[in-house]
Structure formats: C-alpha cells, structure tokens
Design a protein that fits this description.
By secondary structure, the protein is an all-alpha fold. It is built from 7 helices and no strands. The longest helix has 28 residues. The protein starts with a helix and ends with a helix.
Length: about 160
C-alpha cells in the first residue's frame, strides 16, 4: 500500500477507537498517523525511510522489507518501549492502532507480511491487490469516508459534552 493509504488507515483506526474510549482523539489520531507509517522504516523509498534514511538502511540491512517491522514481535517491542518511556496512554494506543492498520493493509497486497517473524511465513489475504493500483484508490476512498464518519461522531461527542 502507498503511504497515503496507510495514513488514512491509521486515522480511521484511531477515530474508530475514539468512539469507544475516553482518550483524547487528537492525540490518538496524531499517533495513529505515526504508527501507520512506522513499519515501513525498513523501506528506503517510504515516507519513514526518506525521513530517517540512516535508520532505514540499518533496519533494511538487518531484516529486509516487510519482516521484523511488520510483525507481532515489533508491535510488542514498540508497546514495551512506549509503556516504559512515554507517559501518555493515548499516544501509545494510537501508535499501536496505526501499526496494526498498516499490517492489515499490507496483508492485502501480493507481497504479504511476515507477521510471525522470525518464523519465515508470509501472510496475506486470499484476495490481494496491486500497490498503487485502481483497487487501492477505492480502498483509500472508503477509508476516507469512514474517517469522515468517525470524525463526525467524535466531534458530536465533544459538542454534547460541553
């Protein structure tokens, strides 16, 4: 999936979670965006890879693309680090939600992901799409609509509280 699709996936997941939590939706969404981009630190051409080129090269040399940074092990490591060093629960939750949305979206591509890394097993959905293709544009549009819906619900919830 392309970076913009991952971003809207992180936004959608964060806004959906905001529906059932008392966490600050702005923090959830901001962290959700970061989390949605973080797993692609292993790819030099990604938004994260271009932002942190040295880190990207190191991670790619160590693990390759769509392996460690697209796994439950990475999700667990990030969760442990966040809980140890970041006192804002909403940021941690948003980051993890964005990462999970990234994993789900990449499982819809032909390449799949190594969700159970270090086990060398690629997972993908039975029906996959081409990254950047026409179907991805429809997925992007659908996620935009869902974000608008959940965002509207969050705003209405905030207005009703005040």
């Amino acid at each position: 999936m392309l970076g913009n699709t991952h971003i809207i996936g992180g936004i959608t997941a964060s806004l959906a979670f905001a529906q059932i939590s008392n966490e600050n939706p702005l923090i959830l969404v901001g962290a959700g965006i970061v989390g949605a981009l973080l797993p692609d630190i292993c790819h030099g051409g990604s938004k994260m890879g271009r932002t942190f080129p040295i880190s990207s090269k190191i991670v790619n040399k160590l693990f390759g693309h769509r392996s460690f940074t697209h796994s439950f092990l990475f999700l667990f490591c990030v969760a442990v680090l966040m809980n140890a060093f970041v006192p804002y629960k909403a940021f941690t939750i948003g980051l993890l939600l964005g990462m999970v949305s990234h994993f789900i979206l990449d499982m819809g591509t032909r390449q799949g992901i190594k969700l159970f890394f270090p086990i060398n097993l690629k997972l993908r959905f039975p029906i996959t799409i081409k990254t950047g293709g026409k179907v991805e544009k429809y997925i992007f549009a659908g996620l935009c609509l869902l974000s608008l819906y959940f965002g509207f619900e969050v705003i209405i919830g905030i207005v009703n509280i005040t």
